[in-house]
Amino acid sequence: MSDLYDILDPWGPPSSGATNASAPTSTGILGVSNLEESSRRCLDNVALPVVYAVAFSAAQKAGGGRVTRDALQQTLEFSGLPRHVTGQIVLTADTGADSLAQRDFNLALAMVALAQKNMSPTLESVMFHKEDLPVPELDGVETLISSSNMHSSMPPGRGRLDAPDDPWSSASAGPGAVASSTAALGSMSLATNGTETASLPANADSTKKEHQQRTAGKDSSASQTFVPGINMDELQWKLDKEDVSIKESAERGGIVFKHTNYEISTRSFSSMVVRRYRDFDWISNYLVTRYPYRMHANIPPKGFPDNRIKGLTRFASAILRIPFLRRDALVIQFFTNTDEFGHVLKVGNLDMEAEDIDVEDELGSTPWPEVQQTYAAFDDFYAQVARDEERYRTQITSLEKIARYKQAIGDELNVYSDTMRLINAPRESVSGSRKFHVQATSKRTLDSNLNELSMSFSDASLLEKAHGEVQKTISAEYLRRVYDVVISMKLMMDRMRRMEKRKDIQRVCERNDANRKAMAQLNGESPVPDSDRSSTDRLERLLREDAAELQLLNHEQRCIEARFYLELARYKCYESFLQTHYHGYIEEQIKHHTMTLNAWKQALSTADDLPTDPLGFIS
Q1: In angstroms, what CA-CA distances link 33 with 15, 269, 270?
Q2: Residue 417 to residues 134, 423, 595: CA-CA distances in angstroms?
Q3: How far is CA 237 from CA 242, 251, 362, 472, in A?
Q4: What is the mean pLDDT of each run of 10 residues along the chain (619 residues)?
Q5: Has this prediction a pTM greater than 0.90?
Q6: Could you tell me which residues are beta bridge partners of residue 309?
Q7: Any idea of the CA torsion for 599, 605, 609, 610, to the nearest 10 degrees?
């Protein structure tokens, strides 16, 4: 997709020419300069596998002693990733210099490793996974190295990474991981099948075993279960994470008719913008138009202003959790451009066409019959989603009722505790015999202990109210986010039902068959009369038009079926969040009941100290 504006594309080259000269800040409209600066150094202190050094040496050989963009592209071709993915990685890693330093080369390999695991190949993802990066697979990369001078160009115990022009060769470069990788490269020989077979250093044994296991696994890939090629960025499944905070602005917009403005602060973009509800509504409609066959966030209704900020926060956070939405140029503008959003829409060259899908690239190794079988069960899956909707709605309602009951129990316990305090008791009568109205010792002990019991009941009241608040604001809130995913899936399936092309394909096929029969009848007459020549030309034109229309309809239907297959897999992945929800819910129940039990135990100790001798109350 082309950029909607002349702005710095986070997936494009970070050269100065790509930055809009009219950007309001020195970091550009997207605010990614600081992010790139920190991201490019995130691997400096990480011990990387030997394959990084091997690939860097191969790229140096391919580039004539330095790593150029073309040499990096040639190296990444051994990853088996689609060319457009490796091209984006090269653009992201390139700094605009004549050659790439090893730091940038390592970032490119790290992004390759993430892409091979169906994760987002971005600098942000490398930063997030730097401690648990997968090992990149570059089978056959050693063919770029000339076997005749691979070791002759490297003195014993020293590799090409120690070249004087390498920015990592100085003592200030940081860790000793580069030196160990260089020594490993000097002692390594590469077999013809692309597997490391010579002696490796002790710290590379695990890498060798992992590579051998992966190589062995490729031979039996036909017996493995096909996994949909969806982006497995873990952030999108963590529904409890919020990247956005929204609050109502003190200043109201408008001259005559005032409207509420909202201040949106985004941590990932380090930005703060002001938007109104109409802007949220516009971006929601844009997402439906641009990505009709995908699940995306649902905007809350305009009513109920008390809950609107919570709903808008869920909506905005859900957008930034989804990888393909987080990279959308207009979404980035929405969260980073400090201008009024209406002005942004006027000056922008908006691309409102539905996204075009490369079915083969999206599905990868998934066989097409499996996609068709999944789509054939569309109605069954729709019924399952409807059951999920009912189940989660019932659970949310139950939690909200429990929260209200907890609040009511807390209120009644507080009322009860008030009646036990001595300050609320009526004064003693001064009439009659003083003998029976003078406060006895047991009475004074009773009043003192009742005051303590009142405090214990008050503590129990606070615990019940706090538990009710947790039920409402955390447990029920988490379920609402799961419920939003279910509603997103249902709305997407409704759009697919309205937009599917099977009936249109059948109609065009029937019309095409009728035209072919008419053409056959005309061709059966020999010779064709001049009066029928125009009919023949018309039928030929109609057949060509039908063929073109049928090709387009078949492509659109394949896109719908492929996208449904992938989105259904993504929908199922969201169920992994239920562990976080139920673990937190049960843990909170245990914590609440433990504190409540301790409070009542303390109250029981006070109750046991209450006087029990009837005569002790008579002075």
Answers
A1: 11, 10, 11
A2: 59, 12, 18
A3: 12, 36, 20, 22
A4: 36 38 37 57 85 85 78 86 82 80 88 85 82 85 53 38 35 35 33 34 42 42 49 79 86 67 90 91 91 89 74 90 87 90 79 82 85 92 95 93 93 91 57 58 86 90 91 87 93 93 92 89 64 78 91 92 92 91 91 92 91 83
A5: no
A6: none
A7: 40
